[in-house]
Amino acid sequence: MRNTWRSIGVVGVLLLGMVPVGTAQAADDPSVTPSSPATESPATETPPPSVGKTADPSVVTPPPAAESPSVTPTQPVTPSQPVTPAAAWSITLDQPAASWEDKPTVFTGKISQPITGSYITLWQRVPGAWVLRGSTRTTAGGVYKFSYTSAYTGSWAFRTMIGVKDTTALAISAYRTVPIQDRKIVINTPAAWYATLTGVSVTGRMTPAEPGKELALQDYLGSGKWRLLGIAKMDTKGNFRLRVPDDLPSTRTVRVLTRYVSQPAMEYSGLAKIVIKAALNPKVYAVSAAMVANTYRAGCPVKPASLRLLQLNYWGFDGKVHRGELVLRDAAVAKMITVWTATFNSKFPIRQMRRVDVFGGSDVKSMAADNTSAFNCRRVTGDPYSLSPHSYGWAIDINTVENPYLAANGVWYPSNGLSYRTRTPARPGMLFASSVATKSLVAQGYFWGAGWAKPDYQHFEPK
After folding, report:
1. Most buried residue among 109, 231, 317, 327 by CB atoms closer than 10 A?
2. Would you state the CATH architecture of domain 2-178?
3. What single-letter DSSP state applies at residue 247?
4. pTM of the full predicted structure?
């Protein structure tokens, strides 16, 4: 009889050994699919059949017997693997590294038996329960590995077990506490306001730093709609700088967000208010000989040391603010800042404002380009016997195409401004006695060339 029980016991154990550890739930069984804390807990999981039992009532489970210490009804084995006492079953969980809310945390460990295919589950402790987070099977040597991305920040306890229920698991690991850190994009507090064309930017830092990762800047349009303003990459420390369009006065509500990630993993900064105001923003610099290489030569009445470079903003014909420059006599700078402050505030349009040196010192080319300029040591265009008032750095020409010039030789300059010889109808960029630029220059002691017998509608010079 004892031999009969022994035979049946061995058969039963061998049959059980053909079933992997925790085989009641396959890896793709929806009943053990990882879930959120609100929808799943250990109590909702379907437990596996008790190890040592069989669905076939004809198979009799042997009682514990001293004759067979290496075979117990609670120890699954396979014919090709050694049999070990049940008490030897255990599972380890290595300490994972700290992770981030949108990055996977890697869990590794090993079971005490070098069995391939044992069913391992991963659990996370949430208030009031342990929640299933994943399942896998051991590989060669009994090792296992999980990758789990937590949507929640904080320090969380995790553990693993052989099986799917703590009441039936062959072994449960010690728990490990893992810090799930909060990824953040922080925007530096902007200034109260910025002047146009001053390189307005949104700066800040992302933690953790991901050098080379692209971030996007958006502004809010209302009704839940956002518009892309710019893209930039963070540096090795996570710092970033994203340019804000500043060629128009505006008030924008902006935010910074990560790119090339799924919507749930997307990180957003807080909101920032960027106020840009239209302003002349004049800057004055010394002039070197190299800056006027084409407009100054030995014998000119004013040397470079007595000239100044005035950089300032102006309104363009496109309705946007642009940056311009004028080379002037040092004593004329204050007057010109006064004139152009009023002109800018009136939104009088200027085509362009560049040093005549950019045009090789040619007054004809500068006029044809509809350029507003001041200093140019040269003879009067159309009169080679007279020195131009521009040689002294006081005179200025404004919008040369819209305000053409009748030279002493009877030729109108520039040739592409002939349609503006007739001063009606009024068109953008044309100067009149009522124009803010005209009145401001006259108020500073300038004379307007429109009053000459041969009119020069573009030209102003001191009386």
Report:
1. 327
2. Sandwich (2.60)
3. S
4. 0.67
